[in-house]
Structures are given as C-alpha cells and as structure tokens.
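Hi, can you check this record?
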Amino acid sequence: MQAKTTISLGDLARVGKGTPGGEWLRRYWLAVGLDAELRDVPRALRVLGEDLVLFRDGAGRPGLIGQYCPHRGTSLEYGDLEPEGIRCPYHGWLFDRRGQCLEQPAEPPGSTFHQRVRHLAYPVREQGGLLFAYLGPEPDQPPPLPRYAPLVEPGGQRQIEPIRHLAYNWFNFFENVADPCHICVLHRSSGYGEQTWGNRFFDYHDMPAFEPVERDYGLTIVLRKPGPRPDTDYVDEMSLALPTIAQIGDTELVHLRLDEVDGQRDGGRNHHWMFLTPNDDDHFMLFTVDHYTGPDPDFFARLKQMRAREMPQQVVKDYDHRPYMPFRGSVRSEDVMAQGTQKPLWERAERLGASDRGVIAIRRIVREAVEAVLRGERPRGVLAPEEAERLVYIDSYVGVRPRE
C-alpha cells in the first residue's frame, strides 16, 4: 500500500481497511471470541469494519471467514457446519476454514469451478480460553501469536469474564488508562474513592504523583505517594501494551476500603488484562482475563462480591433523561459515561496540560507504530519468528517500594 508516512492524530483511532490505524491493527493478533462460547452455531462478527462469521467446523477447528457468500451474497451466519467447513444454506457451496470452496452442488459433474473460488478467510488460534484472529495482509504467514503470560502460565486461578460490548471508539478507552488523574476525580464516589489502601492513595484532595515510563511493549503509568516509612513509597502501576492491551495491577485492592486491607501489604497477585478489539470506528469488544496467584482459594468469588456492592448510587429525578444516568458509584459505569460521551479523536477539540503527559506519551507511541507500518517496517509489539516461544509480561506492580 502506497501511503503517507506522517499521519494526523485522528488517524490513530480509525480502524477501517486502508486507513493508517486500520492497517496498523491488522499486523497483530486480536481477540475475537471465547473458546467456550463457540459451539455448533456460526456467529456473525464485525472486526475492524469487516463483516465476518466465526465458526467451528465438524472437526472442532475454529475459522473466521467473510460473512457473505461470494456466490449470491447470502449470510453464512446461517450456514450448515460440516466436518470440512461451513456450507451456504442458499445453494450449498461448501467452504473450509481457509476460505477454499470445496463443493458447488449445482455445477455440472466434473466442474473445477470450485477450485478457482477462494473466499475471504483469516487464521484463528486459541490461547488460554480466548480465540485470536489475524487480519493482516499475509494471512498464510502471520507473525507468532504472543504467548501472553496470564493465558499460558500454569498454576493459580484463571477467570475470563463475559465479553463487554461498548458503543464508542476503542481509542477513548485505551488512552484512558494513561490518564490516572481521572481516577481521583471521576471515581471518587466509587471503589477508588471509598478505598485508599495506602496513605489515602486516591484522595481527591491529594492526588498521587505520577510519571509515564516507556516500555518495550508500550507504556506504564507509575503512581507514587509517601510510604509507611520515610524511605518508602506506596506505588500503583497500570500499563498499556500494543496494540490494544491494558493491564491494571490493583484489582485486589481497588474495591476495598481503608479498614479492609493492610496498607503495607504488597498487592499485584492478580494479573488483570483487558484485550480491546474494535468492531468498527464506533464499537469495540472488551475481553477481560484475570490470573490470580495468591493464597486466597476463593479470590474470584470475593472479587465478585466486592464489585457487586459498587452500584450506581445517584438518585435520578423523574425528569432526568440523560442516557448514562445513574452512573456514579460504579467504576465501570463512570468510565463508560466519560469515555462514551467523548467524541472520537478525529472530531475532538482539546486543551491538554501537564497532567495529560501520560495521554501524550501513549499517543506518540501509537503514532510511531502506525508510521512504522506505513514505512513497511515491523511495528512494536509484533513478534519476529524467532521470538515465538517468549512469554509476554506486562509490568503493573502495586505495593510498597524503596524510594527511588
């Protein structure tokens, strides 16, 4: 693709084929489904603006192909699953998971027409309960699927949440992780505001200092406050990994109040990863994986109880018809309101200050990766073939550290 090598800020957030951001995202494996939910029914799915069908053939192998049959355009969402692949319900054309047409029942005996029909198809692989697809320009030679530590490491307890479907641009969510100042303000009436685990860490009137630290995978936001001893700091980190992964380190502590946790205890025993996959410019899916390696045998049951008490607490007047009401009192509801009411990046007018240095940093990192693709280079986060066996970790420490 011949394209410019410098891009606008709005180009980072667009996902369609041929756009700078969309071509960049197509160089990575993206989460597209849950392995446990892909049974014997095809599922229509939009990914990066493309209408597709996710299915499992009769041999149990997952496939992702174009939604509309190349014959007469009927949706393969209603196709019949067979050992070799999926058969169109209209005229019976059979496709394997690589998109090759295998049969055309109405064509003359001996016809080889089917051999010349190859439908749109992308490779799909399972890892740790998630299904990942590669929508890149060379689907037969994709880069290695990264071995994400919380999905492949043995031991501990693992939980995959139901997929969340959100109706706004994916980049609004992604860059929010690099904006820690909002935690003390937006979430002051919910989990973050009610709990303080270390020296009132997220106090609205005494916000923690923070710095963005660039990593080989992306960016880590490091927040600090004076610790229990003069030579220590309370530290809370959250990270972003290219292309669309967020890791929050304080899941064990963020839902607890001051009297429920020892402020000097190190946290970070639950690795809370979020994989974002854009459906199009206005919708995205959020896949959430937790891998807990601590001593609590019922950690996820306790986490569910803690989250359940975080419900929107506003009294909504009968004449208040704002669509996101009520939202205060729940971290997730508050985030959806704030991010969902932002315009997409290409339509937004902003006045950024010093407190926005994390957002500025992640935009620069993404821009550099997008521009690398436009130059024909391998962007940050795409593994070389010789790195296929490397475990991918993301730093998100929470606890007490010696003061640097």
